[in-house]
Fold Phosphotransferase.
Amino acid sequence: MADILDDVREWTGEPRLDVLLEHYYGLQLQSAQPYAGVLKVETDKGAYAIKRFRKQEEVTWSLVEQVAEHVKQAGYIIPVPTRTQQGKRSFPGFAHRYVLLPWQDGQQMEKWDRDGWLEVSRHLALFHAATKDWESEVGRATCLHLGKWTELWRESRRQMAIFQMAADLAGERQGMDELWLNHSIYADTMVDNAVQYLEKAGGDRLCLEMSEHGKVCHGNLHRRNVLRTAEGVQLIDWRHLVVDVRARDLAHWLIYAYGRTGRPEIVVPLLRAYQSVSPLKEEEYQLVYAQFLFPHRIAHVLYQTYDRQKYTARQAEAHLNQAVTVEEKKLMLIRRYPDLMREAFDVTVPKVDWL
């Protein structure tokens, strides 16, 4: 046991994880191993995953529990935090606060696994369909995006203007500041395009109408959050779950697949697989396109850098460089998407004029 505790201390900074698990859960620690961003612990009552828990995640995990309770009626299982013996969702350690989740056996998806990715699309359709009748009061903007795209995107544009001013007025500019100033006009233009396109398509009213087909999104789709199990695929890491229309999840899944393959055509089989379970309305193709237009990666890096000050100057520059590369590469998908949708599904997706 001493060796296990020494390893855990090195990995997490926690000197007595065994005591914490026994006190809060009545579990006897038997072994531990870091695995894909979590700590897998074997106990006398089975295996669990321990994840860092941040204060702002309390609302999200509460939402996850509500949604999980609803979708299990349709046979869809979402892992939720194991409550402590005191009824809490998380427990304090000596170094950080944590959440304990049931362990899910499986293997992460390969970088390119066509059959697996098609299965993810079908699985995603099942989840979205299971949420179409879900109702809840969600007040936090971090969780509630349904009917708020215009508001959130305009707020993001306002923040970008502030960040641009901060970079411009910096007494001693860092590489991040110069890089942001060089790309700020492009990012501002893309936000403006996304807002105008959404308004022409029907705006947030259209999003509210389309929510009858699904109103909760996983929010963080990529291969590391997909497990191949004996029963099929399973989505993990639900701490980014948001209330929003399915076009949001679909757009981000298609962007991810395109980024991994470099082939705009990949969106066609993925959408076909999705629609084999749950067909899309023609208007939803336009909502997907609006999501394509918004520079999500750049906005995220700017917020983490200038508002939350999460990165060092060097880290921030590297993250923004990567975000700019992703957004510029995405232009090919934006150009090809309307034609692909017309050819494959006989639907009209108006193009942005300058593209």
Remarks:
- Residues 208 and 288 are 14 Å apart (CA to CA).
